[in-house]
Amino acid sequence: MAGVHVVGGGVVGLSCAWALSRNGHEVTVVAPDPGRDGAGWVAAGMLAPVNEVQYGESALTALRLEGARLWPEFAAALEAASGRPFGYDTAGTVTVALDASDRAVVDDLLAYQHSLGLQAERRSAAECRRLVPALSPALRGGIEVPGDHHVDNRAFLAALVAACRGSGVSFVEAAVAAVEPEATGRALVLADGRRLAAGSILLAAGTGLPAIAGLDEAGLPEVRPVKGHILRLGPSPTASPASLLPMTVRGLVHGHGVYLVPRPDGSVVVGATVEERGMDTTVQAGAVHELLCDARAIVPGLDELVLLEASTGLRPATPDNLPRIGWTALPGVAVATGHFRNGILLAPLTAAAVVDLIGGHDLPPLLESLAPVPA
Ligand SMILES: Cc1cc2nc3c(=O)[nH]c(=O)nc-3n(C[C@H](O)[C@H](O)[C@H](O)COP(=O)(O)OP(=O)(O)OC[C@H]3O[C@@H](n4cnc5c(N)ncnc54)[C@H](O)[C@@H]3O)c2cc1C
User: Fold this and answer.
1) 212 ligand 1 Cβ < 6 A
2) Using a 6 Å cutoff on CB, does residue 257 contact ligand 1?
3) pTM score, two decimals?
């Protein structure tokens, strides 16, 4: 089979590369630091189709639910192929409210989730604390969502790189500067001037996509960066590494959303801001302060943890928040990007779609409208 060059070594590019390789394609991933950069490295790793629902996003809700449905099989296959566990945790999520107006918002969300037939249960403050004893006694209760899970995103990326290597995927550690069209023999031009002749090309470069030259005629949507600050807290070296949290906790704190995602080593990921600041990735004191204040309002015991890392990532977003998966207007050039807040959740779904696409098959009806260019 003709080779596929995947541009981008993030969760989307690597998931697609591994799936393509398992399906008999010769695959090369071209990215500066595969599995170690991009938004997926920074992310929290939530697989949260139920808590992420928003009014007016029914197409995205359907995608998220289908993404979540594919996760167990994808996770089992990846763990077997890579030999690396990556903290796939199905303990569920509790979403709590700090004050009465937060409770009203959480109840509205619950009513909307129920109207969509999603599984979520109203819980009193005492019931929430039975689920997560570290929760603040000041909370007004919340909802329990058993179907919202999480993974350790960094371990997930490492497993994807290992599985790719194990199945014969090649890596070229370089940035792509341009795509050369069909007329000159389809190729990737690297930032260091090298030229790689390519069979098919899959563009999965996240927020790096707009900087790649040669794509003006591709019919791609605008992909803009949406900045997120996120923190990593760990047990102090003298404390036991036992986890403070048996499950993911999401919260509304005087109208601000915050989440706390546990890791197997006892650390906790706290996120995240959602900011329109272009390609700026600086870490700002005010954002770190706000995240910590909101997180400790719902789990006061966070004060005892060590601040390991404050970082930012850039979510690749399209104008309608939907990803774009499909052939571009350039022959032999496909795209998978724009996964915004859900790239990890949607990775298995995207990988399956890309295998269909490159294999010459139609996409399932749920994904047909995601093509950047109508078929
Ligand atoms: C703070 C934060 C929290 C998040 N939490 C979650 C979560 O809990 N659950 C969830 O599902 N999603 C979450 N996300 C979103 C998720 O991280 C993204 O949707 C996902 O990472 C997108 O994957 P991607 O592979 O398209 O892009 P990225 O992960 O950004 O990877 C892009 C890749 O392309 C490469 N690249 C860029 N330009 C070039 C070029 N010119 N040539 C070659 N390679 C290039 C990069 O180096 C990188 O390897 C979060 C994001 C952030 C920022």
Assistant:
1) yes
2) no
3) 0.97
